[in-house]
Amino acid sequence: MNEWITAMQARKWMKKNESFLPIWHAYVGVELDLFNQFERATDIDTVSEKTGYPRDLLASWVRVGVAVKHLKKRPNERFRSSKQRCSTLMGDNVSPGIKAILKEMLELHIPTMLKYPDIMRSHERAQFDHERHGEVVAETSALLEHFAIKKIIKMLRDQRAKTVVDLGCGHGGYLRKLSEEFPDLKLVGVDINQKVVDHARSLSEGYPNISFEVGDINTWEPEEQVDVVLLHNIFHYIHPDERDNLLDHLRSYVTHKGLISVITPISEKEYGHAFSSAFNSFFIAHDNLFALPDKQELQKISDHCHFEMFDLDPIIKEGSWYTFWLSPNSPIKEMRQSTMAGGTEQQIKREQAELTRTS
Ligand SMILES: C[S@@+](CC[C@H](N)C(=O)[O-])C[C@H]1O[C@@H](n2cnc3c(N)ncnc32)[C@H](O)[C@@H]1O
């Protein structure tokens, strides 16, 4: 191929993908607290001496910062963080959400994505390291709590629930929010990662109605029946062939009128296709993480395990994150099935009356 074309194609490609630089720059700056070091106009030598970071590396980071407009050049070779662009990356209020997302993206997702060619050639997938990455993953998924909690609180109030179990509870944020709203609820969090449970316990001191257990949700059982189970951001930890078994297991201890609250990213094109497909690529590059479910799969496993699935709503559209409920008490479905099997109007009404009488 013509050399000129090759070079121009590469130039165009580089230009188009320059957008990666601000992410890298922000990650390094937040991890090393550099935006704060340059909160006031300061020269590189001063910051290098104060922090002990090598001068050449620091100077290079500063140059990138100026190029991506995170830093401003000031007179006398001094530099200052841009308050307009980096207010969430500096000061006492470095946004914990942004910090966690940068960490997860750069330390977990990108390295795995870089291994894709090796993984595809060798057929040897990566192992998700719960010990190393469990904490940051629990932190980023907790960012959804804010968007999901209202719907759960409303349902719990309507249900008059007495016990709630959060399976794969991470740092237990849902339980603390529920405890504040319902101080008499019995709240239990279960997670397989001891470190994550330790952190959840320390964050939940002062919440007497919350307890935590280390356990595998595929086998863990409560002492008594449970009104509401939270199953949030957990499907991709369970092999698609095992998801039925998990729901069957939950069925054995959720009360007849109980509910399961599910939150999960879904593999689909309607919303957040870029995000959910990238997420999916990351999961399936691991031996111990699995493909996101799609709507059909969710419907199929719900039907198979005799749960009624309802209120399927997107909560973070750009991430294709959905919430829905599963109810083991599925009169609507039983009625639908009897219609499909040739049930008459009167027969359905009779069944409806019977259900109302017995419930
Ligand atoms: C993505 S985090 C979600 C945390 C929380 N549910 C939320 O939505 O914010 C998934 C959590 O599930 C836990 N986990 C994964 N597999 C599990 C299993 N088989 N049994 C119990 N916990 C599990 C992980 O340790 C992690 O803390």
Q: Could you describe the 3D structure shown?
A:
- The chain is an alpha/beta fold and 359 residues long.
- It folds into two domains: 2-94, Arc Repressor Mutant, subunit A (Orthogonal Bundle), CATH 1.10.10; 135-358, Vaccinia Virus protein VP39 (Rossmann fold), CATH 3.40.50.150.
- 51% of the residues lie in helices and 17% in strands.
- It contains 17 helices and ten strands.
- It has helices spanning 3-16, 20-31, 34-37, 44-51, 55-67, 83-86, 96-114, 116-122, 130-141, 145-159, 173-181, 194-203, 243-251, 273-284, 295-304, 331-340, 345-358, and strands spanning 42-43, 71-74, 78-81, 163-167, 186-191, 210-214, 226-232, 254-265, 308-316, 321-327.
- Strands 6-5-4-7-8-10-9 form a seven-stranded mixed sheet, sandwiched between helices.
- Residues 332-359 have low confidence and may be disordered.
- The protein binds S-adenosylmethionine.
- S-adenosylmethionine binds at residues 130, 134, 137-138, 141-142, 168-170, 190-193, 196, 216-218, 232-234, 237.
Query: What is the assigned CATH homologous superfamily of the largest domain?
Result: Vaccinia Virus protein VP39
CATH class of the largest domain: Alpha Beta
CATH architecture of the largest domain: 3-Layer(aba) Sandwich
Quantity of strands, as a count: 10
The main sheet comes to: 7 strands, mixed
- Rg calc: 25 Å
What's the shape? globular
Helix proportion: 40-55%
The proportion of residues in beta strands is 15-25%
In CATH terms, what is the fold-level topology of the largest domain? Rossmann fold
Low-confidence parts, pLDDT < 50 over ≥5 residues?
332-359
Distance separating the two termini: 76 Å
Small molecules (ligands, ions, cofactors) in the structure: S-adenosylmethionine
When the domains are counted, the total is: 2
Number of helices: 17
Reading side by side through the largest sheet, how are the strands ordered? 6-5-4-7-8-10-9
Order of helices and strands: HHHEHHEEHHHHHEHEHEEHEHHEEHH
Task: Give the averaged pLDDT, no decimals.
Answer: 90
